[in-house]
Specification:
Elements lengths: L2 H7 L21 E2 L1 E7 L4 H11 L7 E8 L5 E8 L2 H4 L2 H6 L4 E7 L15 E5 L2 E11 L2 H10 L11 H9 L4 H11 L2 E9 L2 E6 L8 E5 L2 E5 L3 H6 L2 E5 L4 E6 L2 E6 L8 E2 H7 L5 E2 L2 E2 H15 L6 E4 L5 H11 L7 E3 L12 H5 L2 H4 E3 L1 H4 L3 E6 L6 H12 L4 E6 L12 E2 L7 H4 L2 H7 L4 E4 L2 H8 L10 E2 L1 H4 L5 H12 L1
Parallel strand pairs: 15-25, 18-21, 21-22, 22-24
Antiparallel strand pairs: 1-23, 2-5, 2-11, 3-4, 3-5, 6-7, 7-8, 8-9, 9-13, 10-11, 10-12, 13-14, 16-17, 19-20
């Protein structure tokens, strides 16, 4: 072993390990990889983290983790992570062991085909030459593979398959002071991410230079809170301060907040799916309330593609607001035609193939007395592969609906995402290989219409002065904000 490799291995003084089991997804829905939370100078930070992560549970149901700094014990790291929902991973005893007034927390979905979900549970925790280091991210680092290869050639030994780990290695290998090393590491990253980095005495928060992933700053008493969404603030009594801007780096140290930059902001491109699907209705992103934006999507959809019907129903939970907007615009009554079973959650029991095929019935039920004999307008946020849309349409038909008209509050989803949404390959996206009429027949609907590109932008109602009103719509229009992805898609589409 070379001296360089030996020196590199000395940077890591501890072990990284987790345990647990995975789960199977029945639904054909998009998955965002995670939600992040940071707390600084707030007593009993672990308990606040627990409740705040509950509020962010919709952003990741596979695993959860919390790392705290015990300021009364020489700023010692305390952490616990596991597979499962927040309430399954943590209990009163575990939280009591996580002492301190600062913390970072994380909820996560794994990527498609990931076999070692347990080892990738965040926050990732390391010991290196300058002490302890914890990192949690939301999103995807596009050039992580390239950086990983470079670092491995220089002697780095990776302990996970997570993109997030490259951030820790870049910091550890730098000869600069911690803050400079963090800036240099973040500047090397290409992609869509919100990141929290915690040491024994500092907490750093940053978003990528395009602002793909949301991250907000709040206050609790004299302390500070970072979160992927504002809904977590309501849960813990925090006051919203502002959104973190693209390329910005906030540094908390000794109860002082410093605002710096690791990169100049580039084309603003907040993920449109945050407004359409991912974020909770009671959250605000860049000053726009999610529920209100989705109601406007429903209203716009009604203007663009009205159909005469008896009732309007939304697919729970993300499409309820849009269904209300559609009903208000058309005057067609809104009804709870579909009910979500909120207690299916995770399962460690592998179902039979027959049950897999009928899996949507475990999550959704049609209300027969509401839809029977009715012409139904079914509102949903997106169609990915089309399999779940077919099952839901058939649920309504089996419950006695005489017509099912499907209206989607986004344009056709035709392109994969590289910025943190777990999407199929382009060939597996139904809208990339079928016309709207072909999709209608495939999902067994009487009619099908999508919200137009312009209708979606107008409904969100963000900044008119910037391209695409400051949204990333690449999954709909193939216009990727980062140059690498535009080149990649041009090459892929020309084959």
């Amino acid at each position: 072993m070379s001296d360089e490799v030996i020196q590199q291995t000395k940077l890591w003084l501890g072990e990284h390990y987790n345990e647990g089991n995975g789960r199977s997804e029945f639904a054909d829905k998009l998955k965002e990889e995670c939600g992040v939370l940071g707390i600084f100078n707030v007593p009993d930070a672990s308990t606040l983290s627990y409740y705040a992560l509950h509020a962010l549970q919709h952003r990741g149901e596979e695993s959860a983790g919390i790392c705290t700094v015990d300021t009364k014990e020489k700023n010692r790291f305390c952490y616990y992570r596991g597979l499962g929902l927040v309430k399954e991973v943590f209990d009163k005893e575990k939280l009591a062991e996580l002492k301190g007034d600062r913390a970072i927390g994380h909820v996560r979905y794994p990527s498609s085909g990931e076999e070692d979900a347990a080892s990738n549970i965040q926050p990732l925790i390391f010991r290196y030459r300058d002490g302890d280091l914890a990192v949690a991210t939301n999103g995807s680092i596009i050039n992580a593979g390239e950086i990983r290869t470079e670092l491995e050639q220089q002697g780095s030994i990776f302990q996970t398959t997570s993109d997030t780990e490259v951030i820790a290695h870049l910091i550890a290998r730098s000869s600069a002071d911690f803050e400079t090393a963090a800036k240099e590491a973040l500047a090397r990253l290409n992609g869509g991410f919100a990141v929290l980095i915690m040491t024994n005495d500092k907490l750093l928060a940053a978003t990528d230079r395009h602002g793909f992933r949301p991250l907000v700053l709040g206050k609790v008493g004299s302390g500070f809170v970072f979160s992927s969404e504002t809904c977590a603030f309501e849960t813990i009594g925090a006051t919203y301060v502002r959104d973190i801007t693209p390329g910005e780096l906030l540094i908390l140290s000794d109860n002082e907040l410093r605002e710096e930059r690791f990169a100049e902001a580039e084309r603003q491109a907040m993920c449109a799916m945050e407004y359409i699907y991912f974020a909770r209705p009671d959250s605000d992103i860049n000053g726009i309330n999610i529920h209100s934006a989705r109601k406007r999507m429903g209203r716009m959809l009604a203007k663009e593609s009205f159909v005469d019907a008896d009732i309007v129903t939304g697919v729970p939970d993300s499409s309820i607001s849009a269904a209300i907007g559609y009903a208000e615009q058309t005057g067609i009554p809104y009804e709870l035609g579909l009910i979500k079973n909120k207690y299916t959650g995770r399962t460690f029991i592998q179902p039979s193939q027959q049950l897999r095929e009928q899996g949507v019935k475990m999550k959704l039920s049609a209300v027969r007395k509401v839809v029977e004999g009715k012409r139904v307008v079914m509102i949903d946020d997106s169609i990915v592969r089309g399999t779940t849309s077919l099952r839901i349409v058939n649920l309504l038909r089996e419950a006695g609906a005489i017509e099912v008209h499907v209206r989607i509050t986004s344009p056709p989803f035709q392109n994969p995402c590289f910025y943190g949404i777990d999407t199929p390959e382009r060939k597996d996206l139904i809208a990339a290989r079928m016309t709207v009429e072909q999709i209608r027949r495939e999902i067994n609907a009487d009619s099908l219409q999508f919200l137009t590109h312009q209708g979606c932008l107008d409904a969100v109602g963000s900044n008119e002065e910037v391209r695409n009103r400051g949204l990333c719509m690449a999954c709909f229009d193939n216009d990727y904000p980062t140059e690498q992805q535009n080149e990649q898609m041009v090459t892929s589409n020309s084959k």
